[in-house]
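From the methods appendix. Each design record in this collection lists the tokenized structure first, followed by the designed amino acid sequence. Records were kept in a plain field format so they could be parsed without special tools. The example shown here is representative of the layout used throughout.

RECORD:
FOLD TOKENS (193 positions):
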């Protein structure tokens, strides 16, 4: 019996020794991993620290450049004041009201663009809008059309306002889309001229 107890005790001691060795090995591995992480973080911090002054200089975040931001803010305020003045003045004879254009365009969709918009854009858009409305009203219930209208009509109203403002600035109907094609092309000269 004493031999059996000694054998059980020896097995228990051996198991305890193996467990302690395994725990020590895991602790060493974790310590090594932690040291690697800390070294990596230190390298990353060093790299970021080197790049911060260069990145600030490239972006213009230095304190010396605060004059540029103030002049930019003043320029933005001036242009906002011009837009405010343009939108608050009453339209004179021959000009289009941006309020009328916006309300008509919001209520009628692209049909409202006919008030101040380019006829090259307003007529096809109006025809497409009316055809789409006729088809959609026959096929889709109004509940499904409402979300589309809640997005499309305000955008159309904004386009109507922009058309009226462009009309008043240039004294006539102006296109909003594909404007680069409207620019006059230089005339070709003949060889004899």
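DESIGN:
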């Amino acid at each position: 019996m004493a031999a059996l107890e000694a054998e059980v005790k020896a097995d228990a001691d051996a198991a305890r020794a193996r467990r302690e060795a395994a725990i020590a090995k895991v602790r060493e591995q974790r310590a090594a991993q932690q040291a690697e992480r800390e070294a990596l973080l230190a390298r990353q911090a060093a790299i970021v620290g080197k790049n911060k002054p260069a990145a600030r200089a490239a972006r213009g975040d230095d304190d010396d450049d605060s004059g540029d931001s103030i002049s930019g803010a003043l320029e933005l305020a001036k242009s906002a004041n011009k837009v405010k003045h343009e939108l608050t003045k009453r339209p004179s004879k021959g000009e289009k009201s941006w309020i009328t254009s916006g309300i008509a365009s919001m209520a009628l969709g692209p049909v409202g663009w006919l008030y101040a918009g380019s006829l090259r854009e307003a007529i096809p858009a109006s025809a497409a809008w009316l055809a789409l409305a006729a088809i959609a009203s026959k096929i889709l219930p109004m509940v499904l059309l409402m979300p589309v209208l809640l997005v499309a009509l305000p955008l159309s109203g904004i386009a109507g306002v922009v058309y009226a403002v462009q009309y008043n600035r240039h004294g006539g109907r102006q296109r909003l889309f594909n404007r680069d094609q409207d620019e006059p092309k230089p005339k070709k000269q003949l060889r004899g001229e």
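APPENDIX NOTE: The helical segments are 2-59, 66-88, 98-108, 119-139, 142-170.
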